[in-house]
Design a protein that fits this description.
single chain; about 350 residues; Rossmann fold; Alpha-Beta Plaits; six-stranded mixed beta sheet; five-stranded parallel beta sheet; 10 helices; about 15% strand; rod-shaped; disordered N terminus
Length: about 350
């Protein structure tokens, strides 16, 4: 019921907004009375301004759908008033009918040149006066409605674009950790793979697994596991510095990092930083078979892709390197390249080694 009344109220406001409203600017009250009587039986609002110096202000406040402007007035003549109306933002589009005591072609021509919409010898026949008022007012109202509809459409399109942008962002983010999800990872890797082919540049991938995460969940519960995933994700994101690099959740306790234009040396440095940063968080993991806090294992792969090659091969190589890292004790980085030039010798320092 309330919504129905609110809707009815809005419709009433719309009707009032588009109601024909006349402003007569004339220094002779007798003319004003004659026009008022002519419009008295019509569904038209009538307003009168005798002082030409107040006409612009009055028109701005009343927002009429048409102005009847007397040609001969003290202080300011009608043509000057027409010029003022057209120069004012609030009245620049309002129809103007110039009222004159006689037909004067030169003055009529000048009135139209300055922006008047019509010219009448006063006082015109009642039927003609009403017809012209309705014609010009309705044209003005129609244009206002079209302008408002266009602005409303533009605003609607803007809001839709914003909503779509937000929706797209949400659909590409992992709900738990806040990092990009698997779907977004697949999109970005494909884009960067094709870019690397076009420019003959290297691309690297890091596959990451939280060590003994099932035991962590069994010990601290799923809420504890969720908190751990969020903290690890946040730490991994802080470890990458370039806007082109992306950390994503691959699934479960696995994360993946895409590093465009990064060779073996660079990706190994990033991977080791991630490993050390996560370990430095000292997230308790009393049942880990590595140490008493959370650690990660990382598999690294690098390639300079050629036409016809597949990004899936890079994923498989990084996954194989991760398997080796886990198979050799976890909490370490292992690397594999897809090109002969990328194959590494075994690293002796830190937690990094190549296969």
């Amino acid at each position: 019921m309330t919504e129905h009344l609110a809707g009815a109220g809005q419709e009433l406001d719309d009707i009032r907004r588009y109601r024909i409203s006349v402003l007569l600017v004339d220094d002779q009250p007798i003319i004003a009375e004659a026009v008022r009587r002519a419009l008295a039986t019509e569904d038209i609002d009538f307003h009168y301004c005798q002082d030409p110096t107040e006409a612009i202000k009055t028109a701005t406040e009343l927002k009429p759908t048409i102005i009847l402007q007397d040609l001969v007035m003290p202080e300011l003549d009608g043509l000057t008033m027409v010029r003022f109306y057209r120069a004012n933002q609030d009245t620049s589009q309002v129809p103007i009918i110039v009222l004159s005591t006689k037909e004067e072609p030169e003055i009529k021509s000048k009135a139209f040149e300055l922006g008047a919409n019509d010219y009448l010898v006063k006082l015109p026949d009642k039927i003609e006066l009403i017809a012209r008022i309705r014609y010009h007012s309705q044209a003005y109202i129609n244009q206002k409605q079209r302008d408002e509809a266009f602005l409303a459409l533009e605003e609607s399109q803007r809001r839709l674009a914003v909503a779509n942008k937000i929706l797209k962002k949400l659909s590409s983010m992992d709900g738990l950790t806040g990092v990009p999800n698997r779907r977004r990872f697949d999109e970005v890797l494909k884009q960067e793979w094709l870019r690397a082919i076009r420019h003959s540049t290297s691309i690297s991938l890091i596959m990451i697994d939280i060590d003994f995460f099932k035991l962590f969940n069994d010990t601290y519960g799923h809420q504890g596991g969720d908190d751990c995933l969020k903290q690890v994700a946040k730490t991994l994101e802080k470890s990458v510095k370039r806007v082109t690099d992306m950390v994503a959740r691959y699934g479960g306790e696995e994360f993946v990092v895409v590093l465009p234009e990064t060779g073996t040396k660079g990706v190994l440095a990033v991977a080791e930083t991630m490993r050390a940063d996560v370990e430095a968080q000292h997230i308790p993991h009393e049942n880990s078979k590595v140490t008493d806090h959370v650690t990660i294992s990382l598999g690294v792969a690098t390639a300079v892709p050629e036409r016809g090659s597949r990004e899936e091969d890079l994923i498989a190589a990084a996954d194989q390197a991760l398997y080796e890292a886990k198979n050799h004790g976890r909490n370490q980085v292992r690397s594999m390249g897809l090109n002969p030039a990328d194959e590494l010798h075994e690293e002796q320092s830190g937690g990094m080694s190549a296969i």
